[in-house]
Each structure stands twice: as C-alpha cells, then as structure tokens.
Amino acid sequence: MSEIDIRELVENKKLRDKITTAEEAARLIKPDTTLGCSGFTPSGYPKVVPTALAKRAEVEGPIPVSIWTGASTGPEMDGELARTHCTKRRYPYQTNDDLRKGINSGEIQFADIHLSHNAQNLRYGFYGKVDVAIIEALRITEDGGIVPTSSVGNSNAFVELADKVIVEVNTVQPEGLYGIHDIYTPENPPNRKPIPISNVHDRIGLPYLTCDPKKIVAIVPSDVKDSQRPLAPEDEISSKMASNLIDFLSVEVKNGRLPKELLPLQSGVGNIANAVLAGLSEWPTDGLTVYTEVIQDAVFELLESGKISFASSTALTPSPDGAAKYYPHINDFKDRIVLRPQEISNNPEVVRRLGIIAMNTAVEVDIYGHINSTMAGGTRMLNGIGGSGDFARNAYLTAFLCPSTSGGGKISKVVPFCSHIDHTEHDVDIIVTEYGIADLRGLSPRERSEEIIKKCAHPDYQELLRDYKRRAELGKGHEPHLLYEAFSWHERLRVIGTMKK
Amino acid sequence: MSEIDIRELVENKKLRDKITTAEEAARLIKPDTTLGCSGFTPSGYPKVVPTALAKRAEVEGPIPVSIWTGASTGPEMDGELARTHCTKRRYPYQTNDDLRKGINSGEIQFADIHLSHNAQNLRYGFYGKVDVAIIEALRITEDGGIVPTSSVGNSNAFVELADKVIVEVNTVQPEGLYGIHDIYTPENPPNRKPIPISNVHDRIGLPYLTCDPKKIVAIVPSDVKDSQRPLAPEDEISSKMASNLIDFLSVEVKNGRLPKELLPLQSGVGNIANAVLAGLSEWPTDGLTVYTEVIQDAVFELLESGKISFASSTALTPSPDGAAKYYPHINDFKDRIVLRPQEISNNPEVVRRLGIIAMNTAVEVDIYGHINSTMAGGTRMLNGIGGSGDFARNAYLTAFLCPSTSGGGKISKVVPFCSHIDHTEHDVDIIVTEYGIADLRGLSPRERSEEIIKKCAHPDYQELLRDYKRRAELGKGHEPHLLYEAFSWHERLRVIGTMKK
Q1: Nearest chain B Cα to A116, which residue?
Q2: Which residues of A are catalytic?
Q3: What predicted TM-score, i.e. pTM, was given to this entire model?
Q4: What is the pLDDT of residue B269?
C-alpha cells in the first residue's frame, strides 16, 4: 500500500469494498481469456496485476491469455508475461525483447493492426470478446468514471466492452494529469457522426472513462512508475536528417505550399522523431501545433518555450529526465496538451482534415518509394507498424526518415525491393536520409528511382543501385524490376554479412 | 453541329460568343501545358477537342501535354493522344491499350495516385499548375455554372485551378442528368471542416461546377456518345465468388456484425464487381445502399427493383445495353442517385463514417494477405490502383476478390510473395476466390497463410504453397519467407510459361 490513502482516490464509496491486492485481482484472470489493458508506449499501463499474474504463472505454470493494449507497454507486462509463457496472443504493437522473441519463434501470435482501427474493430465484434479490462487510473470518480494516467490508448473501448474491469490506482503518477484527457467514442455505423475536431485543441469529450461501477471487480493500489526509456544523445546523422527535413519545410513555406506556422505535426516514437521536433526550436515562427500519438521530451520543451502552442496526443512518453523535469508541474501544461483515445488521435478523418505533416521512420525504403516499417529481412518482426499507416495515407505531407545505412555501412537502407512492404509507393511524398530529401510528389516510378538513388542513397551504394535500375529498365515496364535478383541484396547480407558486392 | 441549337444550352448569353469548333478550341492548347479533363471511366470525358488535337498532331507532329482526368477515359482521349505521342504525362488512372503501351515502354510518365487525393494535392500545389480544363457539359447556366454529364471526377478542381476552361457541350448525353450532381469542394487545411455526409443520400453542394465565366475560352458542341464497354456475360467463376461473398455477408448478419440491410456497398469496376452486386438481387432485405465510385448495370437494376434504395457515386458506367435501357428515363432515378466529386465519393473520412463494405478485385494475393492490384510480373502496369486504396484502408469490411488461377490454370493468383504490393496485410479483412473465403481478421501471419492456402488457393497449387510455407517456417520469423525463392513462381512463369512445377 502506498502512503496516500487509496480510499480517498476511490470517490465512489461503494466501490471502496473492491480494494484488494494485486495477487487477489490476478486470481480473477482465468486461463484463455482476453485482456484489454491500458497503456500506449511504456506509459499508463497496468503494472502490479500483470506482475502478480506472472508470479502466479511461475508457480502454477502458464496462464494463457490474449492481450490487447493501446500499443507497446512496459516490461512488467510485455516482458514478464511473455517470459512466463502467458502471452498467447498480443495486439496491436510491441517493443519488448522477450515478447519479440516469442513472436518470431511462432509461439506468440501477433497481429500488427493500424492503431486507429483496434477499438472500432473490437466494438464491431471482429476480434471476439474482451473479458477483462485492466486499467491504470489516477482515481475513480463518484459515478465510476475512471481517470486515466499518462496515456489513453484503447482504454475507453476496453472498459466499454469488458465484462469485468480491474483498476490499478497508481499513486505515483502525477495528480496534475486529471483534466488532461478528452474521452470521445464514435458510434458504430450506420449511426456515426462527424468527429467534431477542426483544430488540434478542440475538446469534444469527458475527462474520464465512463464505466458502469458494477463492472469494477477489483481496485488495486500501485506505486510503480512508468518504465520510461532514456533518449539516446542526439547523433550527427539524426541531426542531419532533421535539418534536411526542416530545410525542405522552409522551401514549402517559401513556395506557398505551407503556412509559416506549418500544419499540425505528427512524429513517430524514438530518437530520430525526437531529433526532428527538437530541430524545430530554430523555426522562425511561433505557434506550431502537434497532432500525434506520443509526446516526447522535445514537445514538452517547445511547449515550454512557446514554439509549440498546443499538442494533441494519446500518450505522454517523456524520458526519465523529461519526466523528472516536466511531470512535477504538468498542471501548467494542461491548457496546451490533450490526451485522446488512439481512435481519435490517429483518426484518418481528423488527420486529413487538419492536414497533418506526418514524419515516421522507415526500416528500409526501395528505389520506387515503398516503405518497410516492421520487418528485418522480410521475416523477423522488429516492433510493428504502430500508427504510421493511420497518418501516412491521409496526411497533407508524408515523410519517411531513415539513415542511408546501418550495421556499420553493411546494410543499405535503400534497396531495390523492400523485403516487406508496410506503406506503398502511393502513400509516400518524401524520403529523408542524412544525404538529402527525395521529393516524390507526382513522379513516375522511373523518375522516383532516379531521385531516391541520387538524393537519399549512401554513396557506397549508389552505383550498385544505378546498375540494378539500368538493367531492370532494359526489360521495360512501368516499374522495372529483375524479380530474380530483387532480394539479392538481402541474400548477400544473410550469406556474407554485407549488402556490398 | 448537332440538331439541338447549342446556343440554347449556353444560358449565359455573353458566353455564346465563345461557341466555336473543336479544331479552333484545340488550337488553344499549347505544347507543354497541363490539361485537367473531365471523365471518370469512359463516362463524361471530352471527346471532340482531344480528337481535334490528335488530328492536328498527325499533321504537325506531337503536341506534348500532361493530362489529368478523374480516372480512365475513352479512346478519343487516352487512345488517340497516346497514339499520336501527345501524352507526355498521365494521371491518375487508365485502362487504354495504347496508353498502357506508352507507359510500359517508359515513353509516358504515369503515376498511380489514390483517386481521392488528386484534387486536394493539385489545390495544395504539389503537382504544378493546371493550365487548361476541358470539361464535358450538359449545359452552362446563366452565371457560368457548368453542368457535368455522366461523371464528376475531378472536374470541380480542374475548373477552379485552370487559367482557361474549354467546355464541350454534349447534346447526346441524357438531359435528365441535370440535377443529379452534388458538387462540394472541401477547403484546404487549416480551414477544412467536417464533410457533412452522414448518410449516403445526403446532398451537401450545388448541381453544377462553379466557374468564373471569364475563364471560359471556348465552347464546343459535341454529339459523340460515351464509349461504354459491354459487360462480359457472367461466368461461372464470377458467380461463385459472388455467392461466396454473399454467403459470408449473411453469416455476418446472423452473428450481429452487420445489420440486415448491410452497410453501404462499394464495388470496383468490371465484370466481377458487377456480378457481386447482381448477386445481391437475392438478398432477403430491401433498402441496401451504395457508396461507390461507379454505378454499373447491376446497381441500376437493383435500384429499379427496390433492392437498393440509394446509390452515391462519381460516375455512371453502364454498358451500352444498360445505357440504352436506363438513360432514356434517367430522370426517374434522380431521387435515388447522386454523383459527387471523387474527392467526396472516395473520401476516407466518409468511407469510415458510413462503414463501407469495400469489394475490389486483386491481380494477385500472397499467402500473408498482401494484395497486388496493378502490376503484372511486378513490372508491367495493367490499369492502376484507382480508388481501391481510398476504400480499402478505412472500410468497415475490406474484401479483395480474384479467381484462384488465370492463364488457363498456368498462373496461380495466390503466390508466396506478391510481385507488387498495393495493399498491405494491414488493410485486408477477407479474400475471396471461387473456392472460398479466407477471413483474416485478427489472425497472425502464420494463421493467415494457413487460411488463405486452404480456403482460396486452387487445389493444383495448394501443396506447392504449403511446401513453401513449411520450409519458410523452419527459418522462424513472424512472417516466414525464403527471400531467395519468394519470386520463383513469377520466374517460372516468365521462363517456362507456367507457375506449376
């Protein structure tokens, strides 16, 4: 039990009888049930109940469960439950080593689903029943409303759909988060109405998840912090990509294709994404806005400096340093940040209406502009597609970023044919590496390959790519390929350890 | 000149001075300009001006132009201008033999762009300037409003963006079409508002294209009909696919995942698409609806019988027989059909809100559920992606249909790895062949390959596919592949003329 009296945080007095231990709550989870858990990135996910479930599994053997969350979560859930062989199925995204191992061995069935689609498809009944929701909360209101913590994710859908709800009341999450959330659930067709967001700051819902108090079967105190990940120090290559992209945006403004305060920015998770946003500290105009799925350190910083005036997201994902710096006075950000369900933060309807500038990282790109976001060597899952598909298809401008090489230069990130395709040529406007920017808008495939090789490929690989292009074009075709050697680069890497010839 | 006095159809009297011949109008088209032309499928496209331009080119040599339309058009435009080497660039879709030849030889630069994106990206300035719009019209109103004919396509954007507008007033298109169109153009971000469509029948705009009369530089009479294509007689395989899909929809209704009058239907162009809709004549409930990009014969038929209560589209694409049957009393359909700009008919915002059931045909599918919609052997353009990406990503239910084989059984439509990917595994709910339906919702890649091979592949290819799957899975991975033989099926076809071993 934490020092704060957990009973005070359960405003509905009748529900106070449900306060129990993590071990008791974990007993409510039967084998072969489906869990719907809060959490998006290692933020706002349940910690003590999954830990208790894993401990029980260590003694009693695996308790097989299917697990839905918002996106990835932390090690208490994705690590422990995979390690103890409880995770039978896992949707819709992950970043955990143990979980990834289980997925790639075929033990864990994983499906990589656009993040904005999860909740609606669950409501439509496409993925079966959600039995138990486990939600991390700041508090429970008088009428059973559950106040989320550092993320919203799919929690509104899980609470609505589950038979039973377990709440972890977390006493170390910043209290000041109460009021930052905006929970809105669209109706199912044929009764759905327009989502009434026309500006990033529009609030359209309630500050908590509505829940029939009768469904709440256990309330468990938790004092475990989000397992935030440190950001790597910014490296030269990320800075160069960021500055290439920012130069490009400046030209777009100069040519009247973007307003000077740009359009709402979306940026993926991780170091490159953070570097791009950090680079905007030099942008000449204040009042930038963000409509995205995660808020990392750079956004807090630019909100503080006034460069960014408002940020909409579904999760706060600061580094430990960022959390230490910004969480103590999170209250000051509440008029400039809103956290929405991922069905709304990532909704293509809103993405297209607002005219998002979508910036996501690629695992590899090919000479015609197809993007691999998920898989190494066409087969081994890295993390997943996450929300990139929600944003890329309907953004105003869609950028994919990656360094030109990896593996000490042995892997070219520009290849003849992507070994896995998550985003097609039809969805990509620009590709950014540390060498430059390929602007693919309106180009035919042959023109695209010229542009990508010239502007984005590492000099060590340019001639090899040109050679492929030249020989492929001898055979004619709209998008010339030599299918029998399209994956030869990946094969060289597999067999001799480098894509170089 | 036609027998109707063309002057009567130009209500704005000042504009009557602009009435001229196709030859004179074609003289206004300078080399190296960009044309924005009406037309979507062989419906509502300009005919006499392109013909005159091609004739001039035959004498004077090619007049190189870039051509934007709604989608494909007819032979007077796509055929003649490609044949006379006038077409330098062509967007965003085509179905013409001569044009295809030019695209695949590399002479014509073609880019395959989601149909709902064309107009907005042109307005954003991403593809350069539209110099001259050529629009087929029923009439011109007092204030310069241009009334489209059998399609809307991107005409509203072309008229808005072009410096000069040439109007072909077509006197053989059914007059009764006046009033069927609903023209609405969204504002550009950051000022865009929700598209106010919550039902297929909602009308939100004007029945004509608004145009500053000063921009109209020529008005040309035309009495050339749309070059409609006959529908092939329904074959056994199409009927089987249609009945498989309809059985599936019945089960969805029984399980409460669809209402008994279904949700609005979208169906691609062609024989298979028409067969699926025709199959719904046996559906037990009246009041079905359609939200799609083309209305073919089957929809007219079901509107007439009352099975379908309303259809929204951007084009009417009847066969010659269908046109002969339905066009003379098209007036009777005007309260049950609306034609919208393709930016609206195909808009993902509306597609997702209404909960469309999207049914499109595939060129090939792979064992993990990726879809090739455009390219033969990974290189040779067939038609293009058209609107399938607009619908597939955000539909309620996304189906792709194809026969299990083609080429007399020598080509399996289910392959280890699609030779070109237009729709990723993340966007596909079900795959339909004449053998059955693979329901991929919520399945992991390994489960998907099992389901697709079992339910959809031709028996002649099942063991070969299983063999690939088995050997690939030995190497582990989330989506097991043997990259060095992933395209070996396409290679066998190329070298020995069959995918069979």
Answers
A1: B394
A2: 293
A3: 0.97
A4: 83
